[in-house]
Amino acid sequence: MPQANSVIVLDFETTGLSPNLGDRAIEIGAVKLVDGEVVDSFQQLMNPGFRVSSFIENYTGITNTMLRTAPSCDEVMISFSEFIADENLIAHNASFDKRFLDAELERINRGYAGEFGCSLLVARRLIQDAPSYKLGELVRYKNIDNDGVFHRALADAQMTAKLWLHMVEDLELSGIANPSFHFMQTVSKTAKGKVNRLLAKRRV
């Protein structure tokens, strides 16, 4: 059974909130974890074929000048589909990243065999006293080492990976040895009030 600490953690920067409204990816960042260690990474700007808004330029720090010389989304996604292969995937607020991953891969007739997990949903269950579930706030709340860079894809993927491994390690310290990816998915779908019962049952 695939382990929770052997996954690919990814993050997209995009032109907006929804591929259904014509928004495209403008950067992808990802790290590959094997047994809790980063063994590979992927980072690439991608040209969506149109100018991005000044809001997105300011929010991400990715400018139209930077994107003008970047390869096309299709070109980048071909490489990225080979990078993820059949691995399970993690993102913070995964429904957002999954929408863009699915939309961009559909354009090039590619898919993926792995499943998606969400570090935000797991954090809501395992870090119930956090003041916020934004990535930066969780990283600060759990005193996870960071360089303060957010809203660039690779930096966010690296931070998400650290947060994910922190939660996996917390489970191990609480007596749940080698939590599987499937178990983390189960945690993310369990009602907050029933999480302690789930964990207690797993420890037996």
Poorly predicted sequence stretches spanning 5 or more consecutive residues: none
What is the string of SSEs from the N terminus onward? EEEHHHEHEHHHHH
The total of helices stands at 9
- Average predicted confidence as pLDDT: 96
> Strand arrangement, largest sheet?
3-2-1-4-5
User: What portion of residues belong to β-strands?
Assistant: 15-25%
Q: Count the beta strands.
A: 5
Radius of gyration, in Å, reads 17 Å
Terminal CA distance reads 19 Å
Helix content: 40-55%
Class based on secondary structure composition and strand pairing? alpha/beta
Main sheet characteristics: 5 strands, mixed
Molecular shape: globular
GO molecular function: DNA-directed DNA polymerase activity
Enzyme class: transferase
Catalytic activity: DNA(n) + a 2'-deoxyribonucleoside 5'-triphosphate = DNA(n+1) + diphosphate
Protein name: DNA-directed DNA polymerase
Tell me what you see in this structure.
With 204 residues, the chain is of the alpha/beta class. It has 9 helices and 5 strands; from the N terminus they run βββαααβαβααααα. A 5-stranded mixed beta sheet has the order 3-2-1-4-5, sandwiched between helices. Helix 5 packs parallel to helix 7. The model has no long low-confidence stretch (mean pLDDT 96). This is DNA-directed DNA polymerase. Keywords: Exonuclease, Hydrolase, Nuclease, Nucleotidyltransferase, Transferase. Its EC number is 2.7.7.7. It catalyses: DNA(n) + a 2'-deoxyribonucleoside 5'-triphosphate = DNA(n+1) + diphosphate. GO terms for molecular function: DNA-directed DNA polymerase activity.
